[in-house]
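In the previous chapter we treated chains in isolation. Here, by contrast, the input contains two separate entities that must be folded as one system, with a combined length of 508 residues.
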Amino acid sequence: MSAKQERLILVANDDGIFSKGIRALVEVAERFGRVIVVAPDRQQSAVGHSITISEPLRTQKFEMKEGVTAISVNGTPADCVKLATDQLLKEKPDLVLSGINHGSNAGINIIYSGTVSAATEGTILGYPSIAVSCMDFAEDADLSGAQEAAARAVQFVFDNGLPKGITLNVNAPAGPFKRMRWARQGDSRYTDEYVARVDPVNRPYYWMFGRLEVLDEADDVDINVLKSGYASITPIQYDLTAYKVFEAMSGMDV
Amino acid sequence: MSAKQERLILVANDDGIFSKGIRALVEVAERFGRVIVVAPDRQQSAVGHSITISEPLRTQKFEMKEGVTAISVNGTPADCVKLATDQLLKEKPDLVLSGINHGSNAGINIIYSGTVSAATEGTILGYPSIAVSCMDFAEDADLSGAQEAAARAVQFVFDNGLPKGITLNVNAPAGPFKRMRWARQGDSRYTDEYVARVDPVNRPYYWMFGRLEVLDEADDVDINVLKSGYASITPIQYDLTAYKVFEAMSGMDV
C-alpha cells in the first residue's frame, strides 16, 4: 500500500456534520489518505473545550460520499474526537482535522472555539492535529483559499511531524490569499457584549453580540495577518502554565 | 471608607449557584470586601470555555445571605462573568473569584474546567481573577483547606497584583494542607474514556468515565503537589501560542 492508502484521517468540526465547511475539509483530506468523519449532529459554535459527562452520547452512521463514512454524535467537538478514537474507529488515526469553520478562529476566539477544541483534543490524545477556519461566516462562503491553506498545513505535518503537545491553528481569508504566514495569537477581547431587551411578556433578556477589540497592533499576530490578506498558521499548546510568571513568582510567599 | 469597604468582589462558579462550594468562597470573599454572586442556575461542570451565543440569557436575583446579592444565569460560567461585568454590576469588580469547585482542576482538567474558564474570562476582561478547587468531589466535602488556600491567594493578589493576562489557578486537598506551593500544569490525559452500553430498547449509547493518567512525574506539577498534601497555585495564561515552537517554525516553508 502507498502512504496515502495507509493513512487514516479523522475529520471533525463544530458547525455540525451537515455544514459546507466539513465537506470542503473532507475533499482536502481525501488527497492524503482514507477519511472518516465524526462530528456533532448540530451547530456547536462557541462551546470551547466543553465535554459531555452527565449524559449519554448517541451516534448515527451514514455515507457522506462514496468511500467516506460519517458518524454524527449528539455531543461537542471534543466529545467527537474522544468518542471516535476510544470507541468508534477500528484503528488509530494518523491525523485529526477540524473545520473548515465558517468564521475565523484568531485572537481571543481561539479560547471560545469548538473547532480548535476538537483539534486540541486530538493533540491531548497524542495525534497530530490541525484546526482550519475561514474568515467568512456565510454558509456559502468561498472556502477555496481555506482548502489550499489546509492542504499546505497537512503536507507540512506529514513532512515534518509536530512536537508533542502542539496543535496547528490555521485561518484563511475567504477566497484566494497571498501566502501562508506563521503568526502568534493576537491579544483581543469583546466589548459591548450584550444587547438587553424585553420579551413579549415584558421580561428582560440578554443576547450576546460583542465587537471584537484588537489590542495587539503587531503585524505577526493572527488577526492582523488575516486582515492583510495572508493565511495564518499558529502553533498552540494546551499547557496553560505561564512559565515566566511561574519562575518569577516561585520565590514569593503565598 | 476602608480598602475592604471599597472593594467589590464578583464570585462565580460552575457547580451552580446553590452549591456548598460557592457559599464557602463567599465566606472568604467577605473578609476582603463587598460581595456579589453571579453564577449558573445549574451544574455546569466540564463546559470548558463555552459561551452562549445562539440563545438569550435570563437572570434571577435573590439574597444569598445578609448583604450578599446573588444573581443566577441560565448560562455557562464564562457567560456569568461576561454578563455580570457588561450588564448586571453597577461598578467594575476589583477581583473575580470562581469556585470552590467540588473536584480538583489540575493537569488536563484545567482545559475542561468551567471553574477555571470563569476566572480566565475575568482575566480576559481585565480583572484580577482566581479559580479555586478542592480535590474532593463529594457534595459535603471538607472545604476548610480550600477556603484557607483561597484566602491566601486573594491576599497575595491584593498585595502584589497580577501581571496582564495571568489567572491564578488554586487547588487544595480536602481538609487541612501542609502549605501552599507554586506548581506547573501537569501533563495528563484520560484513558479508557467511555462505557458502551445498550438502553432498554437495545440501542447503543456511550457514557464518559475516564481514568486520569498522569504523564508527568515531576514533583512541581499541580497533580503531584496535591497528592503530597500541599495546596497548589499555578499562574496560567490564555495566550495559547507555543512561542518556542513558533520561533523554531517561523523560518520553515508551509
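Chain A touches chain B through 72 residues (CB under 8 Å). The longest strand of chain A covers residues 95-102. Compare these points with the single-chain example from earlier in the chapter.
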